[in-house]
Amino acid sequence: DLRRLPDLGCLAAGTPPPTRVARRVDDARGPELRAVTWSGLYPWLLTLHVLSALAFIAIPGVSMGVWWRVRRERDRVRLTAWLELSGGFIVPALLAVLLLMISGIFAGVAGSWWFGGRGWLWLSVGLLVAIVLLMHPMLAMPFVRLRQGLAGGIEDAELERLLADPRPPIGAALGIAGIVVITWLMETTPF
Fold first, then answer.
1. 140: how many CB neighbours lie within 10 A of its CB?
2. Average of pLDDT values for 29-54?
3. Phi-psi bin for 153: left (phi > 0), alpha (psi -120 to 50), beta?
4. Residue 151 CA to chain centroid, in angstroms?
5. How many helices (H) and strands (E) would you count in the chain?
6. pLDDT 10s digits, 58-72
7. Cβ-based neighbour number of residue 148 at 10 Å
8. How far lies 110's CA from each of 41, 59, 105, in Å?
């Protein structure tokens, strides 16, 4: 049973009220409504955000590890198996980035970080979006071309060219650098 509660103290002080939700609690004293505020959810949202960030780093890391392995592999059956392993992590990686963004937005709202000259937050969001968009041409497309080539029975010379594609290591380096910058921005909040 959720109900909206006004915060009259904030209204009297001339500031807008925070979003508050009441929940019904039945305990030894009987049923009552207790306020649940965004600020009360902040620690939980922040924890979810940090765990989502760890998943966002770890899950694509599996694909990156596969890339380093397949660059040395020439057995087509084993290459196909490695690529299938990597492909199995696409949906979890997308879910991790989605959860990272949603939990970050809600943690930003709960912590009152979104507005009021918080340039570091907006830059962090922009960098995260850039990293996610960069990963498709730099990491996903070489894997897709390699999978398609193996399914189509490509020549050995073409397989060598696909395995020597320089984009995945460059994409990994840019993604790691972006994550380091985002971490620095969130820890130092410089502007």
1. 19
2. 77
3. left
4. 31
5. 8, 3
6. 998 888 888 888 888
7. 11
8. 7, 27, 9
Amino acid identity for residue 94 in this structure:
L
Amino acid at 176: I
Radius of gyration of the chain (CA): 23
47, amino acid identity: T
**Tens digit of each residue's pLDDT (9 = 90 or more) over 171-180:** 889 999 999 9
- Tokens representing residue 178 in the block: 């972006």
Which tokens belong to 23? Answer: 């929940």
∠ CA 161-163-165 to the nearest 5 degrees?
70
* Prediction pTM value: 0.70
Let me know: does 133 contact 82? Beta carbons within 8 Å. no
Closest by CA position to 98, among listed 38, 55, 135: 55
d(C-alpha 153, C-alpha 141), whole Å: 18
